[in-house]
Amino acid sequence: MYKTACDPLFPIDCEFPAHENGKFRFIDLFAGIGGFRLAMQSVGGKCVFSSEWDKDSQATYFDNYGEWPEGDITLIAEDEIPDHDVLCAGFPCQPFSLAGVSARTSLNTAHGFACQTQGTLFFDVMRIVSAKKPKVIFLENVKNLVRHDKGNTFSVIKNTIEAQGYSFSYAVINAQTVVPQKRERCYIVALRDSSVKFEFPDFNGKPIPLKTILEPNVADSFTISDKLWAGHQRRTATNLARGAGFTAFCADIEKPANTLVARYWKDGKECLVPQKDNNPRLLTPRECARLQGYPESFRIPARKAVAYRQFGNSVAVPVVTKLAQGIFNYLCEFKPCDLGQTRS
Ligand SMILES: C[S@@+](CC[C@H](N)C(=O)[O-])C[C@H]1O[C@@H](n2cnc3c(N)ncnc32)[C@H](O)[C@@H]1O
């Protein structure tokens, strides 16, 4: 078992240790760098288990929360997982995302549930649900999950959750009113008390401009080379002419940034920051952290490519926090929150 920041014998220096006495208990599956965890902790939840198999993400997680997540979830038996009120899982989205589907289709490989490695991870989530019966299942995935395979994938997910006796609610939420980034994601909240349906809070409002999170002085190393910028402009012109493929523009800093993706570090085409009398520049890792709503004290890995990948894979924390608040309110209404009573 891993050491935790709350173990008085092994105090660990970290920014966001688990609450010693949480108001409810949650688990953090496919934890990444803990976007769900930050949100759930901020409304009083105590994390009692986490799983993430990527070594770099485990290290960032440890640095910030003082816990080393367990590894491959497919190898973890249900009885190794403590009882909990809320199961959180941003299960891997590559088999379902539009980019993932087109890449896989062109490679003639399986996608969705047919992808035997990643697509079946949803059923690992359900294996744990079936054994532990948490009061709430809280899932996140790409927007395309809803339409994937003409809606069949989503129907299987909904039917599987309902077959366990849960109510099912979902919403596609754009993060742009709580962080300066257009990021549409599908959120599912399922309640064990199937007579109640989770009501999603409102995310209407004014989009936040990118300029609100830009650093004033950024090292020259973030400015893209003449060669890269010329290549972007050339491919953008070709793709615009044929009406398909990527287009790389300088961002309008008065508007939210485009969606941050894991591969952003390769060429930055999703969001290039304009600079006066110079080529545009990449966002810095700290700016990426801000685009996803991470606090300033969040510890970022030193290797830039790793940091960009981790923030690109993450959730927008303020979106999850608003949903977490709704879930917490529900838990308190449903039954006074009591850590000792997770399976009533
Ligand atoms: C979409 S990311 C989740 C990011 C996370 N919600 C966050 O806020 O940082 C999915 C994560 O699942 C992890 N993962 C994929 N397959 C896994 C498995 N079999 N066991 C544990 N983790 C896995 C990946 O390494 C990746 O970090």
Shape estimate:
globular
For the largest sheet, list the strands in their spatial order: 2-1-3-4-6-5
Total number of helices: 10
Q: What is the CA-atom radius of gyration, in angstroms?
A: 21 Å
Helix content: 25-40%
Which stretches of 5+ consecutive residues score pLDDT under 50? 339-344
Structural class: alpha/beta
Could you tell me the number of beta strands?
A: 8
CATH structural architecture of the largest domain = 3-Layer(aba) Sandwich
Please give the largest β-sheet: 6 strands, mixed
Mean pLDDT: 89
The name CATH uses for the topology of the largest domain is Rossmann fold
CATH superfamily membership of the largest domain: Vaccinia Virus protein VP39
How many structurally independent domains?
Answer: 2
Q: How would you portray this structure in words?
A:
The chain is α/β, with parallel strands linked by helices and 344 residues long. It folds into two domains: 24-204 and 316-334, Vaccinia Virus protein VP39 (Rossmann fold); 210-291, DNA Methylase, Chain A, domain 2 (Alpha-Beta Complex), CATH 3.90.120.30. Helix content is 31%, strand content 14%. It contains ten helices and eight strands. The chain has helices at 35-42, 55-65, 98-106, 121-132, 152-163, 226-242, 264-267, 285-291, 304-313, 317-334, and strands at residues 24-29, 45-51, 86-89, 136-142, 167-174, 184-191, 273-275, 278-281. Strands 2-1-3-4-6-5 form a six-stranded mixed β-sheet. Strand 1, helix 1 (35-42) and strand 2 (45-51) form a beta-alpha-beta unit. Helix 1 (35-42) crosses helix 10 (317-334). The longest helix is centred in the C-terminal third of the chain and has 18 residues, at 317-334. The protein is globular. Residues 339-344 have low confidence and may be disordered. S-adenosylmethionine binds at residues 30, 32-33, 35-36, 51-54, 57, 72-74, 90, 92-93, 121, 313-315.
